[in-house]
Design goal:
This protein is α+β, with helices and mostly antiparallel strands and 472 residues long. The chain is 29% helix and 22% strand. This is Circularly permuted ATP-grasp type 2 domain-containing protein.
Length: 472
């Protein structure tokens, strides 16, 4: 695709292969199309047998859908990964400091760097968390940061996912599938491993258990089997060797959380919760919630259980807060950001709103609380009617929207029906924070399988690729 940075090729004619892809392209050139097609069918069948699916709410075609897997990997050289790793650790550290600050001393608000209303009128702000001390001052124990490459190859942060970030199970299963389909590639290339992620996650969760807990009990809390990411919840619990529980499996007694077991109640110290804030405790949040645990917030406030991620973390991954993350890095760490944001227009500002309304056909406009590729306008791909309808929505509630330039997302060769063709991609690395900060090399590469599409979300027809970080 002319005008886009190609991950594999350094020229538009696709004759000059980038150095870190050369060994792979030499192998690919020797593969017969029939073998690649056969391997793709084998992968699809295997994923379906294992149950690696996700639910699409309101989908008339059925509740479960297979996420397409592409067998051409996205390869990142060690030097580039080192920069990404440094920038990701810096960013998540600043975000954790920001969340702690807004629930305690509000230094950043008092300094005038972020308007108070941007925080305290935010739907994800939880006044119940004000003054609560959490273990190690960590709020976002698991962060999924969406990275895109644009322009001449610069990396940008597109989005921070700090509430209940998903997708790591697909990262792990994609790697297992590639090793099963093409074992020879892993003897020919020095690819950094990712299969230790569940052990790393468990170590980080245990490290933030309440003080005085020698052998903490960790559980994964799921809303249940009808949740879109239930496969991932069950997968991670199984891989960590911990119990997968629902709210009904837990109860509070004597300011302690217990799990019901066949051998009687067992104390729970750390809950890796995949349940949204609103549904965690019907006594504190939504009284109609049947997914939560009555009294959980009171135990949490007293420091006798750790929730990962913390209640109220979502205030920092709201798209209205995103434009300020660079300021957070400078304010809390006294450093320049290693990774930059995408330039962002805040429609709540009158002058920026005027620019956005005058350029809707050139911009990507997003709801500040939106996710999954929903509630957004991709101006260059929208019809005049869609643009005019969106214009009315933005005018009616400007503070609910931000806008960004339409990025020329990088492409990676992808095996599609017509053969191998470039498709746009992003990357979601997973950053774990506890007593230390760490991440496995790589992440989940998502690919927009529709030709010309910039929307990589699985709910919008996107697929996934294995992500290789080369060790030298």
């Amino acid at each position: 695709m002319p005008g886009f940075y190609d991950e594999m090729y350094a020229d538009e004619r696709q004759t000059e292969v980038r150095a870190h892809y050369r060994r792979y392209t030499d192998w690919l050139a020797q593969q017969k199309p029939e073998r690649l097609a056969r391997k793709r069918a084998e992968a699809d069948l295997s994923f379906r047998r294992v149950g690696i699916t996700f639910a699409v709410y309101g989908d008339d075609a059925g509740t479960e859908r297979l996420i397409p897997f592409d067998q051409i990997p996205r390869i990142i050289p060690a030097r580039e990964w080192a920069t990404l790793q440094r920038g990701l650790a810096q960013r998540v550290q600043a975000l954790n400091m920001f969340i702690h600050d807004i629930y305690h001393d509000q230094h950043i608000v008092k300094a005038g760097l972020i308007p108070a209303e941007q925080i305290y009128r935010n739907a994800q702000y939880r006044p119940e968390m004000q003054g609560i001390h959490v273990a190690e001052n960590i709020y976002a124990h698991i962060a999924g940061v969406d990275i895109v490459r644009a322009g001449e190859g610069e990396f940008y942060v597109l989005e921070d996912n700090l509430r209940v970030p998903s997708g790591v199970s697909y990262m792990l299963e994609d790697r297992k599938m590639m090793m099963r389909l093409f074992p020879e590639l892993f003897s020919q290339n020095q690819i950094a491993p990712v299969d230790h992620y569940p052990d790393m996650l468990l170590d980080h969760l245990r490290s933030v258990a309440p003080q005085g807990t020698d052998d903490p009990t960790v559980v994964v809390m799921t809303p249940g089997m009808f949740n879109s990411a239930y496969f991932e919840h069950a997968f991670l619990a199984q891989q960590m060797g911990v119990e997968l529980v629902e709210g009904k499996d837990l109860f509070v007694n004597d300011n302690t959380v217990y799990m019901r077991t066949t051998r009687g109640p067992k104390r729970v110290d750390v809950i890796y919760r995949r349940v949204d804030d609103d549904f965690l405790d019907p006594l504190a949040f939504r009284p109609d919630s049947s997914l939560g645990v009555p009294g959980l917030l009171a135990v949490y406030r007293s420091g006798r259980v750790t929730l990962a991620n913390a209640i109220g973390t979502g205030v920092a991954d709201d798209k209205s807060i995103y434009p300020y993350v660079g300021d957070m890095v400078r304010f809390y760490l006294d450093q320049d950001p290693v990774l930059n944001n995408v330039p962002t227009y805040q429609c709540r500002k009158t002058d920026e709103l005027s620019y956005v309304l005058a350029n809707l056909d050139k911009l990507v406009v997003k709801e500040v609380h939106g996710a999954g590729g929903y509630g957004m306008l991709v101006g260059p791909a929208a019809s005049k009617d869609e643009i005019e309808q969106f214009r009315l929505r933005v005018r009616a509630n400007p503070s609910a929207y931000i806008a960004q330039p339409t990025l020329a997302l990088s492409t990676c060769p992808t095996f599609v029906e017509q053969g191998i063709a470039p498709r746009h991609i992003d990357l979601r690395p997973f950053v774990l924070s506890g007593k230390t900060t760490s991440m496995v090399p790589g992440g989940l590469t998502r690919v927009a399988l529709k030709e010309g599409s910039l929307v990589v979300n699985s709910s919008q027809g996107g697929g996934t690729k294995d992500t290789w970080v080369l060790e030298n």
